[in-house]
């Protein structure tokens, strides 16, 4: 392995002047992943970045290769939304299409722009001034702008389109699948405000704005934009296609490439076939298509969706389903339709009242199956858990698209409304009914939740501060201004330090507000853990011991 300091301007001709030093270590061969790995310290990021390079299995002497930059959705490589470069390798794209494939990590959520005031959030500069020059100086990349390709989805799909439209003379073409392409500075979401700092800073990076300002620069020649997919952002895909049509920007478009919102769900091989096909093999969009999928002039080859479980929401354990279905259940109808499931411990009786866990699930278990939420609460009702701490477990279920509280799009802390959202009101009404009907110890009622359920747990604390003996909000957030109302409730919050879905600042701010109000909360921030922090939290024997020791006066 080599370690060296290199001047950015020396890496590639044409690179703009910048801070003079970048420290690079590597490459190191990662045999398991089949990639070469660099570690880079640069003035553009707050921490060391990893760059991974996947080469064709056989490099031909004298040949140069196109480079495909696989842009991560999260700060790290892999995680909640999978590993894009690993999926490209599984598709054998580096050999089938003759590509040098590259991905990189960031220390903050990547939106591929720059922060208004923080010089250590400059992701566009990091790619253009460090990653691209490094690859082109160390490997047989052609170095031609037309051969610099970008692919991404969700945040990174938005970012890929932004990178190309901001500098069409630097990048060649982009493939974006299922991205929030219609998001503008007027309504920044998904932690983008943390990336840009202000709406004014975000505006020059917004794809909608860039199409209106610079779309004409792409009007001639083959299509350089490939816009695909409907999963979470199908509406954005369709509307952005219409925007490109209105501004005469040639592009490839397919709104029927439907897979789960994840790198490893099966969309990548299909997308690459469309994206990398010769221009003559596809029909670029130049007028209203006959249907939503006709603009490519061809159907993507079918690839079965991957059967991998979401890393944060593993599939429901089929062995638990009969146990869950045997539990008591019901459906609230006012003020929202809300299925619920209740585990009743056999030891409970009027003379032997037991505590109750009020469990609020995350976004991945919304729906109406009335099974998923209780499966996620397994650590509280399993035979082992009940042998140590017998308790009731009540798990209501949010409908698809709903929340336990009025969250903002950035999933950051906010000012709560005076009235709860219908789902929270219905869930609390179910809880009231259970407390009235069953032998629950009224001094030992606990609330916990994860992700949007973590936000719900904080909200429930505010709504019923005199009800709870303790609360365990996991990877959530709330209204710090309400903390004084429940400062006397025992709280132990948990969060992953690497969480890019809900920033750990959310929990930190809530804990700080509680302490400032005179409370004594506990807080655990798990290093190297992303959004799935509820698994180590709920599996913690220390947490269970602490929780069931709490009793309201």
Strand order across the largest sheet: 1-2-3-4-6-5-7-8-9-10
Q: What's the shape?
A: elongated
| Helix residue percentage | 25-40%
What is the gyration radius calculated from CA atoms? 25 Å
Question: Could you list the spans in which at least 5 consecutive residues all have pLDDT below 50?
Answer: 8-19, 280-312
Q: What's this, in brief?
A:
It is built from 18 helices and 18 strands. It is α/β, with parallel strands linked by helices and 553 residues long.
Characterise this structure.
With 553 residues, this protein is α/β, with parallel strands linked by helices. It has two domains: 3-296, Alpha/Beta hydrolase fold, catalytic domain (Rossmann fold, 3-Layer(aba) Sandwich); 321-549, Alpha/Beta hydrolase fold, catalytic domain (Rossmann fold), CATH 3.40.50.1820. Helix content is 27%, strand content 19%. It contains 18 helices and 18 strands. It has helices at 84-90, 93-96, 123-138, 155-166, 192-196, 199-202, 207-214, 234-246, 267-275, 321-325, 372-376, 378-381, 383-388, 422-437, 452-463, 505-516, 534-538, 541-549, and strands spanning 3-6, 22-30, 35-41, 49-54, 66-70, 99-104, 148-153, 173-177, 225-228, 251-254, 328-332, 338-343, 354-360, 392-396, 440-450, 470-474, 490-496, 522-526. The strands form two sheets. It has a ten-stranded mixed beta sheet with strand order 1-2-3-4-6-5-7-8-9-10, sandwiched between helices. Strands 11-12-14-13-15-16-17-18 form an eight-stranded mixed beta sheet, sandwiched between helices. α8 (234-246) links the parallel β9 (225-228) and β10. α4 (155-166) runs parallel beside α7 (207-214). The termini are far apart.
